[in-house]
């Protein structure tokens, strides 16, 4: 059985959201599955790389806002969020995701989609654990249990470990897909991921 | 007559080099020409955006080195430069280009290719005006005249004006193609540029 594609993403990343909508179909076309791996751009970009948040970077921020809307328009994806509004605290969503992945691994994809959809399609504010209990969660997850888990130490530790592992692996951006050890950063590279899978590298 | 594609590039940018090899054919397929517009990443990235040089950025630098070699391998482009070696002072090449564009506008594409080829295919060091006289220049350009121009005040002023105009236009990365007012940043976006030209936008 070939290894899953490692899909690294941050819930605050619109390009990660766009890629999350395509990665499973891409993997399935080549007989692969997806391992969903949360990262924190606040750690990789701000602390390790010493850069600024993308949307707060002069020149680039304006371009990215334009580009995100342009991509959504072309792909027919509804964005329910004002790109100029602060995205809020990414920790509760990422921690809840890690907890679900740990305790309900079969629901990890559904959980990632639920959180991305709430943030990007519905424009929800998920800055607190309690907010997680108010979104549409995968069947089989009790909202109160998810909120409690997101506030707990286990979820915090799982996320810390996941983020440390991603930095150790050199992952810095969202989305990044690693296929058989080969990293591809950026939504634009999904076609390259598929081609790499098809021909076995170059 | 439709407007030329504005091709913004820095000679120190490997992705700009890769794109420079494709932009004219792309434009020609849609009945366009190319206006070659030098930028300086040392101004946009370092001064205006407050970021670091790409290859000196933790995590990203390693990825980019790997990605540049991977792209060159796939596209069959020979790279004659060690990506870990300093690229040198970009000003003489950019100034010489501006002077040629001003005084021999019909040679601008050939001059861009000559400089890119010297730096990236041949691994030449073009940090001084005199070095420019030692590379293979377009027919019709006297090497000594190019070197003298690159050291002169007119070329410096032309480049300053070009860079100021690019910043004013929000251009920050190499390559960036602007088609009828719509900017596309990155080598990966050349297919989008072509699609935009084909369908007239989205």
TrEMBL record, chains A, B:
Keyword field contains Protein transport: no
Protein's organism: Ramlibacter alkalitolerans
Protein name: 2-hydroxychromene-2-carboxylate isomerase
PANTHER family in the record: GLUTATHIONE S-TRANSFERASE KAPPA (PTHR42943), GLUTATHIONE S-TRANSFERASE KAPPA 1 (PTHR42943:SF2)
Coiled-coil annotated spans: none
Gene Ontology MF terms in the entry: isomerase activity
Catalysed conversion reaction: 2-hydroxychromene-2-carboxylate = (3E)-4-(2-hydroxyphenyl)-2-oxobut-3-enoate
EC number(s) stated in the UniProt entry for this protein: 5.99.1.4
Family affiliation: Belongs to the GST superfamily. NadH family.
Keywords: Isomerase
Main EC class the enzyme belongs to: isomerase
RNA-binding keyword on record: no
Ranges of residues in domain DSBA-like thioredoxin: 7-195
């Amino acid at each position: 059985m070939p290894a899953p594609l490692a899909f690294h993403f941050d819930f605050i990343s619109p390009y990660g959201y766009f890629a999350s909508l395509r990665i499973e179909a891409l993997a399935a076309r080549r007989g692969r599955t997806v391992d969903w791996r949360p990262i924190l751009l606040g750690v990789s970009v701000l602390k390790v790389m010493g850069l600024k948040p993308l949307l707060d970077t002069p020149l680039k921020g304006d371009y990215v806002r334009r580009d995100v809307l342009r991509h959504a328009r072309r792909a027919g994806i509804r964005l329910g969020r004002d790109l100029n509004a602060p995205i809020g605290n990414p920790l509760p969503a990422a921690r809840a995701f890690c907890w679900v992945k740990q305790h309900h691994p079969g629901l990890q994809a559904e959980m990632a989609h639920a959180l991305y959809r709430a943030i990007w399609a519905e424009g929800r504010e998920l800055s607190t654990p309690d907010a997680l209990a108010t979104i549409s969660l995968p069947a089989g997850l009790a909202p109160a249990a998810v909120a409690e888990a997101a506030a707990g130490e286990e979820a915090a530790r799982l996320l810390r470990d996941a983020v440390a592992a991603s930095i150790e692996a050199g992952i810095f951006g969202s989305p990044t897909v690693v296929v058989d050890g080969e990293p591809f950063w950026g939504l634009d590279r999904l076609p390259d991921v598929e081609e790499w899978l098809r021909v076995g590298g170059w």
